Amino acid sequence: MPEVVYVSHARIERKIGPLRIAYLPGESQPVVFSVHGAIAEHYKVDPAKLTESHASTIDYVIAATAG
């Protein structure tokens, strides 16, 4: 097995509902994840209970693979 060259150390804090704060290497500020629009509708998140609308984790995955 080849030598491991990198291990990412990330920490996620769940706040309220889908609102999560990620602490990622290489970022000086935390990254905020949540849901929005059609994603919130798909998961049946009550818009009244959605305190903050942010990009979802799938948005970041798509951006990373498309870049």
Q: What structural keywords apply?
A:
three-stranded antiparallel β-sheet; 67 residues; 3 strands; elongated; alpha+beta; 24% helix
Describe this structure in words.
The protein has 67 residues and is an alpha+beta fold. Helices cover 24% and strands 16% of the residues. The protein has two helices and three strands. The protein has a three-stranded antiparallel sheet, with no helix packed on it. The longest helix is centred in the C-terminal third of the chain and has 10 residues, at 57-66. The radius of gyration is 15 Å and the shape is elongated.
Uncertain stretches of 5 or more adjacent residues: none
Helix content: 10-25%
**Euclidean distance between termini CA atoms:** 29 Å
Overall mean confidence score, pLDDT: 90
Radius of gyration: 15 Å
Q: How many strands, which pairing sense, and closed or not: the largest β-sheet?
A: 3 strands, antiparallel
Beta-strand residue fraction = 15-25%
Order of helices and strands: EEEHH
- The general outline is elongated
Q: Counting H and I runs of at least 4 residues, what is the number of helices?
A: 2
Derived from helix and strand composition plus strand pairing, the structural class reads alpha+beta
Number of strands: 3
Going across the biggest sheet, name each strand in turn. Answer: 1-2-3
Present the secondary structure layout.
Elements: E1 11-14, E2 20-23, E3 31-33, H1 37-42, H2 57-66
Antiparallel strand pairs: 1-2, 2-3
